[in-house]
Amino acid sequence: MSRHDLYVLAKMDCERVARYAPDMGGPKSWERSEEAIRGWAELLMDRGFKGFFGIHPETAYQHRELFLELEKKGFELGMQFHAGNFRGLEYRCYLGSYSREEQMDIIRKARDDWIRALGRIPRTYGVGGGSFNDYTWLVIYELGFRQCYIPPERHRPDVYCISVSLYPYAHHANPYNRLTPGDLELYVIPITINWRRKIPGVNQFYDLRPEEKIGIEVHRETINQNLDKMIELDVPVKTITVPTHNTQEYTDPKNRSRMMLEEILDYIMEAAERRGLNVVSATPEEVHLAAHGGKWPWEEEMRLYKRWERSLKPGEGLDITRLPAPNK
Question: How many structural domains is the chain composed of?
Fold first, then answer.
């Protein structure tokens, strides 16, 4: 990892179809969803980028083969989740409204469904709609997630999303305070936002999603603003996240969202070069690995453990074959 590297994360949250997604919506059909996924992935690959899919459990079932095909091409598959869109829609409240025990039960069920659908274990978790509370980091960590992403600087009590003053750059989570860095081996990668451009009528800010009805000049401002602040603060792991959803017609070269995404990616390259930054296309897990200097510390510890076991000579330590059996 170099402090001159800029990690660009292109991510697509893959929602359930709209008729079963009352919690913030989804694509109008599974056909539109597949077209969006395939078109977005091909656009990225044509430009030398990889990406991340935050997949709702039901969407994992619908597009299993497509996701596994794209995983082989370098895309990371993770789980993004809205409690209100899950299974038979029996969870009527936003995730952030639930207790620790309730969140553990709900997210474990979602993770189990996701694993059955794809035959993989998800390592990155997307906080659907930003709905979370101070229990969420420990819950997802205990369920095996090691990366997550969240929109910062939102005040949306209506959906239990309050992330005002959340540290907005990549960091390890605090197990007891969702807003501050800590020592939990869960790496939080906040979504890139424009700190000066609040969305009218709602307490949140514009991000870099290409489907937003704003011009490229606002996206350029978002990119410049965040690059300058990360350089000023000497943030060790610099990231820019470009989010989208499986709702857009990315297979159509003349689609507005597709053209905007191309302009955003072009400008990130230009703005980074102007500041002497090296653009690295990365997935959340790769960014977390970079934060550890390119090597997971526990892998080295396990390697040394195995070496130690093999190094033991006769007479060193306990010979358990000579110990009495338990309970005797």
Answer: 1
Write the CATH number for 279. Answer: 3.20.20.370
Residue 74 covered by a domain: yes
Reported as a single tens digit per residue, the pLDDT across 275-328 is 999 999 999 999 999 999 999 989 999 999 999 999 999 889 888 888 887 776
Domain with 47, as residue range(s), is 5-322
pTM of the model: 0.94
Segment (H or E) for 181: strand 177-181
The pairing of beta strand 205-207 with beta strand 193-198: antiparallel
241: nearest Cα among 50, 4, 2, 11: 11
- Give the list of residues 6+ apart from residue 54 with CB closer than 8 angstroms, or none: 11, 12, 13, 14, 78, 79, 80, 124, 126, 149
Sign of the Cα pseudo-torsion (62, 35, 51, 127, in order): negative
CB 32 within 8 Å of CB 305:
no
Q: Is residue 233 part of a domain?
A: yes
Q: Is 119 helix (H, G, I), strand (E, B) or coil?
A: coil
Q: What are the pLDDT digits (tens) for 27-85?
A: 999 999 999 999 999 999 999 999 999 999 999 999 999 999 999 999 999 999 999 99
